[in-house]
Amino acid sequence: PMPDVPFSVRTNPVINKTLSEHPDLFSVVTPIQVDRFEALLADHPNQPFVQSVTRGLREGFWPFADEKPPEYPETWDEVRPPLAEERARQFLRDQRDEEIRLGRYSPSFGPNLLPGMYCMPVHVVPKPHSDKFRLINNQSAGKFSLNSMIRPEAIKGAVLDGIPALGDVLR
Questions:
Q1: How many degrees, rounded to 5, is the angle at CA 138 between CA 136 and CA 139?
Q2: Which of 56, 57, 129, 167 could form a disulfide with 61 if both were Cys (CB 3.0 to 4.6 A apart)?
Q3: Is 64 a residue whose pLDDT tops 70?
């Protein structure tokens, strides 16, 4: 099955307070009709895996991470300087607005992170063989990166490249 949220994280009072006071910031958006998907997999031989996937589609997936180490801060913003090029800055603003419109990014809740939140940098890189850009979320940036909380052995052999890889596993 897909990993569940560790008990220590699920019962963390700081995280629970932020979640309960701001539920609108933490919606799960998917194009998958989860009830239909679950019905189609009713006869799948690995029901614990199916149930963990459908729970993730409804509640959000836990990223194979351990709880944050004790030396990590409660809240962290991995700040980067503004982009130098105006065209890249405009692309970033346009992408942000589109993600908010589609419900995949939360709208602004002020200039500061809420308790328990970590923010990783977003980069703009050129698309190969094009004058267009693409957006990159860098989960490995900085001293307290989100990816640093994932032990390599926890994901050994896992392909974490999206829905097609998930579909292959479910076959």
A1: 135
A2: 56
A3: yes
Distance set, CA 162 to CA 30, 45, 147, 166 (Å): 12, 22, 17, 7
Alpha helices in the chain (DSSP H): 7-10, 13-21, 34-40, 47-59, 86-101, 163-170
59 shares a domain with 7: yes
Average pLDDT for 36-45: 97
Number of domains in the chain: 2
In this structure, are 77 and 43 located in the same domain? no
pTM of structure: 0.78
Q: Which domain holds residue 144?
A: 73-148
For the chain, first and last CA: distance in Å? 14
| Domain shared by 122 and 134, yes or no | yes
